[in-house]
């Protein structure tokens, strides 16, 4: 069956621009997570949705980062006024249970 | 708060040798523990998980890990390394509350397998 998909796979933007990253979870998974993985580091939690609502957004680094999941399926991570420090791989995961998350291939964001 | 420490950012073993990747955790509540593998330019794949059942957990590709509460450890082992095991391995912890919960990852261990 289809796994978690993320688009685009790569995104290059200029400092100060706005970007949107999309995540399509596994069908039927109610929980959706966003993580950020910087070079040489483990993934760091950003935000988690249960259905349409953000259940935990404690990992969002500042108010330039925002995520939505309006219909409880696809989610979009939005970054305003991008900075070079935002360059990383953004990972999305979904789950149907408390103890296993399935990850997508990630979106590699490069801010020039 | 929860955290994970992975000792050794790089581990090199010979093909056929024992693989041992170390993970220690800190958690104020009973944890779930996970090992994920990441191949180059790919997403994370779950190797195995501990969810408070058996303390010795067997996963895919011949890997296993043992939960030791007294040592707050969850080390990953494989009796005989294969070239295809070369990848980045991440240990992660989440809260054991029965509901969905974020993962807190370690910094990863890169496993190199040599002939």
**Tally the helices of chain B: what do you get?**
0
Can you give the helix content of chain B as a percent range? under 10%
The N- to C-terminal Cα distance of chain B equals 41 Å
Q: Element order, helices and strands of chain B? A: EEEEEEEEEEE
Distance between the termini of chain A: 37 Å
- Structural class of the secondary elements of chain A? mainly beta
Shape of chain B: globular
Radius of gyration of chain B using CA atoms only: 14 Å
How do the helices and strands follow one another from N- to C-terminus of chain A? EEEEEEEEEEE
Largest sheet of chain B: 6 strands, mixed
Structure write-up:
- The complex is a heterodimer of chains A (112) and B (115).
- With 112 residues, chain A is an all-beta fold.
- Chain A is built from no helices and 11 strands.
- Chain A is globular, with a radius of gyration of 13 Å.
- By secondary structure, chain B is an all-beta fold.
- Chain B has no helices and 11 strands.
- Chains A and B meet through β4, β5, β9 and β10 of A and β5, β9 and β10 of B.
């Amino acid at each position: 069956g289809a796994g978690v998909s993320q688009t685009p796979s790569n995104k290059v933007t200029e400092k100060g621009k706005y970007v949107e990253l999309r995540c399509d979870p596994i069908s039927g998974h109610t929980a959706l997570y966003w993580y950020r993985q910087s070079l040489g580091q483990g993934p760091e939690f950003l935000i988690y949705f249960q259905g349409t609502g953000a259940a935990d957004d404690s990992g969002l680094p500042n108010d330039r980062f925002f995520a939505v999941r309006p219909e409880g399926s696809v989610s979009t991570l939005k970054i305003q006024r991008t900075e070079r420090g935002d360059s990383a791989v953004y990972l999305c995961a979904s789950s149907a249970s408390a103890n296993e998350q399935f990850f997508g291939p990630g979106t590699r964001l490069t801010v020039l | 708060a929860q955290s994970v420490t992975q000792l050794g950012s790089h581990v090199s073993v010979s093909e056929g040798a024992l693989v041992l990747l170390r993970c220690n955790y800190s958690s104020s509540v009973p944890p779930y523990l996970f090992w994920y593998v990441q191949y180059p330019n790919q997403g994370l794949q779950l190797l195995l998980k501990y969810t408070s059942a058996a303390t010795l957990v067997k996963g895919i590709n011949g890997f296993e890990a043992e939960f030791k509460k007294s040592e707050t450890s969850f080390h990953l082992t494989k009796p005989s390394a294969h070239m295809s095991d070369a990848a980045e391995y991440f240990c992660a912890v989440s809260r054991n509350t029965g509901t969905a919960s974020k993962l807190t990852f370690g910094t990863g261990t890169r496993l190199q397998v040599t002939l």
